[in-house]
Amino acid sequence: METEEVMEEKNPNALVLIDEGKQFAVKTDCMDPEALFLDKKNFVPMLNQVKKIARGLVADVHTEEGFKARKAMNAKLAKLKTAIEDRGAQVAKELKAKPKRVDETRRLVKETLEMLQKEVMAPIREIEARQQEIVEISNIPATAIGCNSEGCRQVLEAIEAHVHDAKYWDESYQEAMDAINDARRQVNGILASAEKQEAEKAELERLRASQADFEKAAREKAEAEKRETEEKLRKAQEEAETAKREAEAAKREAAEAQKLTNVDFGEADAKATREAMLFPDDERQYRRMANREALEDLMNYGLDEAAAKQLVTDIVHGKVRHVRFVY
Predict the structure, then answer these.
(1) Which residues face 24 on adjacent strands?
(2) Is the pLDDT at 274 greater than 80, yes or no?
(3) pLDDT tens figures, 90-111
(4) How far apart are CA 13 and CA 40, in angstroms?
(5) Mapping DSSP to helix (H, G, I), strand (E, B) and coil, where does residue 326 land?
(6) Smallest Cα–Cα separation from 19: which of 40, 49, 61, 41?
């Protein structure tokens, strides 16, 4: 973009253009390159001169002389541009390096002064640190609240870690020892309470365990008695079932024997039948045995059980002529 031509003001730092024929040169009274490049007004007079010369060039490009003249003017402008650009780049590089040097200076000053501040305040900081440690000691007992006995002992160890000689505590020695002793007293009180609670809890657990053992023994005894009772009941039921089955078998056997021995001879034999019912048990048993043996013998001759029973019954009833049982 073209630099606008401005009215030139008197400027002692302004660059002046010198046309040396084959090249352009510049001169200035400004001895500070940074000041020169930081103000673009310093370059305005020189640029106006270059514009005037370049635009005032009369050269017909269609002729060899005019062609060479324009090539020569372009070379002079290029050299001027490069010379000023290179110098400006050098100035810019130097300017970019300055903040780093400024920062180094600032850091040196800051670190030195801060070191001196620490040295000056060191005695005060030591007193403050000792006072802060005393405050921490005073706060330690609160950490034991709710702890068991083992936790309280660990808190006591934390208190003992703050026990130092008089040289360490300096002017705060007595205050520190008072804080330590008070902290010990508080934590020992919490420890005693915790140990008492733990002992009571252990005793309660022992009693509970003893009660549990007693209840277990009682429960096992009751269960054993229950099993024994159930076993006795089971055996009694089995015996009753066995007796019932035996009674039913005896009843069936008696009914069968009765069927073989009870004979209805009509009204004429009623008396004899009633008398037979009055026979002793052993005689009735004998008759039953005789009937069974007769039944077995008849079956041995080839009669089936039903036919043999019918025959015995008919003989007992007197239905078989000329045949009777003699008991």
Answers:
(1) 19
(2) no
(3) 999 999 998 998 899 899 999 9
(4) 11
(5) coil
(6) 49
Looking at residue 261, its pLDDT comes to 53
Q: Measured in Å, how far apart are the chain's first and last C-alpha atoms? A: 165
pLDDT band with cut points at 50, 70 and 90 for residue 143: very high
Look at residues 43, 39, 135, 133 and name the one whose alpha carbon lies nearest to residue 84. 43
**Alpha-carbon torsion (214, 217, 222, 225), positive or negative:** negative
The amino acid occupying position 69 is A
In the chain, at which residue ranges do the beta strands (DSSP E only) sit? 16-19, 24-27
> For residues 199 and 74, what is the distance between their CA atoms, to the nearest angstrom?
108
Give the DSSP H or E segment for 111.
helix 64-139
DSSP secondary structure letter of residue 279: S
Examine the pLDDT at 266 and tell me if it is beyond 50. no
Residue 188 and residue 140: Cα distance in Å, rounded?
12
* Cβ-based neighbours of 69, under 8 Å, separated by 6 or more: 57, 59
- Alpha carbon distance 259, 262 (integer Å): 6
What phi, psi does 304 have (nearest 5°)?
-75, 170
Site of tokens 């037979």: 276
Estimate the crossing angle of helix 149-160 against helix 173-261, to 10 degrees: 160
Whole-model pTM: value is 0.42
Please check whether residue 23 is in contact with residue 80, taking contact to mean a CB–CB distance below 8 angstroms.
yes
Position 1 pLDDT exceeds 50: no
Q: How far is residue 58's CA from residue 71's CA, in Å, rounded to a whole number?
A: 13
276 Cβ contact partners less than 8 Å away, ≥ 6 residues apart: 261
Average pLDDT over residues 204-227: 90
The confidence score (pLDDT) of residue 320 equals: 85
pLDDT band at 265 (very low <50, low <70, confident <90, very high): very low
- Both tokens assigned to 210: 């003893």
